[in-house]
UniProtKB/TrEMBL annotation:
The keyword Lipoprotein does not apply. It comes from Nocardia rhizosphaerihabitans. Residues 403-444 are annotated as: Disordered. It is found in: Cell membrane. This is Alpha-(1->3)-arabinofuranosyltransferase. InterPro entries: GT87.
Length: 444
């Protein structure tokens, strides 16, 4: 064993990657859990949640917080309170530990499901790289350190996408509807089943939050106060812990006209990207769904009233598309943007505190905005090149693309082959000419 360990003989590139990356991923995970997550942080998202759940279980008023402070507030609706109520059965310390472990295992399982979606197994060299990136990310570290629910929502997002691709409409609607009932951060994903005409998914996703609120209403002491006290507050733009364009502008006192102009321009890039994705990539279902998810959610974080950096966990399905040959992320500006919002490193410089503070407070905002711009530029450039070369009828992918890397271990979740839209045939019946490349010819 020792001889094999120190003199392993000929190794493939994938074996070398696994030998290097699995130890790094596991040690990073241990450091994140035991050094950062379990000790906690002065920002405690779990405490107001536990206090509200305990009050709900004892039929006491839930929505009583002073919203003028900068402390974390409980903003979940009555239906979400009902769904989270079992966590209030523990004491606070035990509940926080259980909640932390649930989010940790949910995030790990989400990455496992993502690997399977893209056709990879745990034996692939992509697996340790993905887990290393997850454990090192600001999103997971602060989700667990603060005691937030993002890890469970990450698993729900990946589960929803997998079910959507498999055309399991009812389960997909249930998963997305339960997340919307707690907090609507994944609500923009309703556009995906809508454009794919999976209407039962849309209906169930919208009906479940309404049903949860209706059930919770007679069980809560003050459900109406949520709609007049907490909901208006959650829709306001705040100037702290807010990396959206509006939050950035509020913190730095940017003129409202300039803020509106920037938001409008970024909204246009989102619209262009989504249109090009739908028009030319909807038949590549896995790529279309995951890339559109990234554009929708990045647009939400950037353009809505509230965008917090650890929401970037929900962009992992989009980041996985870098292994797909049609990816829009195979360029260095995209990964400069990703480093801006994904890294746990801080830029609070000791020698230049004011400059460092500005870098730290703005890096997520600029990272999200730059990512939207890069995606729009890549897709637009592909479209213009295809139009110039008169090959729009066959898609906008460049003629020569690097293959999927690494090679998938199994078939990805994609129920239809990646066939670009074809022009109508002008051949007469019975023509012996060859069919268009990629066209399926049925036997008669």
């Amino acid at each position: 064993m020792l001889r094999k360990l120190f003199d392993p003989g000929d190794l493939t590139a994938s074996q070398v990657v696994k030998l290097v990356m699995w130890p790094l991923a596991l040690v990073t995970a241990a450091d994140m859990v035991f050094y950062k997550a379990l000790p906690g942080h002065h920002t405690n998202d779990f405490k107001p949640v536990y206090t509200a759940l305990d009050a709900f279980l004892h039929h006491a008023p839930v929505y009583t917080a002073n919203l003028s402070s900068v402390d974390p507030h409980y903003l979940y609706p009555p239906g979400g309170t009902l769904l989270l109520a079992p966590m209030g059965l523990f004491d606070e310390a035990t509940g926080r530990t259980v909640f932390l472990l649930l989010n940790l295992f949910a995030a790990i399982l989400a990455v496992h499901l993502l690997l399977r979606m893209f056709g990879y197994t745990s034996r692939s060299p992509l697996a340790p790289v993905a887990y290393f990136a997850l454990f090192l990310s600001e999103a997971l570290v602060n989700t667990l350190t603060f005691g937030n629910v993002n890890g469970i929502f990450f698993l729900a997002e990946v589960g929803f996408l997998a079910l959507l691709l498999q055309r399991r409409n009812v389960p997909a609607g249930i998963v997305l509807g339960l997340t919307i009932a707690i907090k609507p951060i994944l609500a923009p994903l309703l556009l995906l089943p809508a454009v794919r005409r999976q209407w039962s998914t849309v209906t169930i996703s919208l009906a479940l939050p309404i049903a949860a609120t209706a059930i919770a209403w007679p069980l809560a002491a003050d459900p109406d106060r949520y709609f007049v006290h907490n909901l208006p507050y959650s829709l306001q733009v705040r100037d702290y812990y807010n990396s959206s364009i509006s939050g950035f502008a509020a913190y730095y006192d940017v003129h409202p006209v300039a803020t509106l102009l920037v938001r409008g321009l970024l909204a246009i890039t989102v619209a262009i990207s989504l249109w090009l994705l739908w028009r030319y990539y909807r038949h590549q279902e896995l790529f279309f769904v995951t890339t559109a998810t990234g554009v929708l959610l990045t647009g939400e974080f950037t353009l809505s009233s509230l965008g917090q950096q650890y929401y970037s966990m929900f962009l992992f399905p989009f980041l996985f598309t870098v292994v797909v040959k049609s990816s829009v992320l195979r360029n260095w500006p995209a990964w400069l943007a990703i480093f801006g919002f994904a890294s746990y490193e801080t830029w609070l410089l000791f020698r230049w505190p004011a400059f460092g503070r500005n870098l730290e407070y703005s890096r997520a905002t600029f990272g999200w905005a730059l990512l939207l711009i890069v995606v729009c530029c890549v897709l637009t450039d592909r479209y213009l090149a295809a139009r110039r070369e008169q090959r729009l009828a066959h898609g906008i992918d460049p003629a020569h693309l690097a293959p999927d890397f690494p090679t998938p271990d199994r078939r990805p979740i994609d129920i239809r082959p990646a066939v670009p839209p074809q022009p109508r045939s002008t051949q007469p019946k019975g023509s012996d000419q060859n069919p268009i490349p990629g066209q399926v010819v049925e036997a008669k």
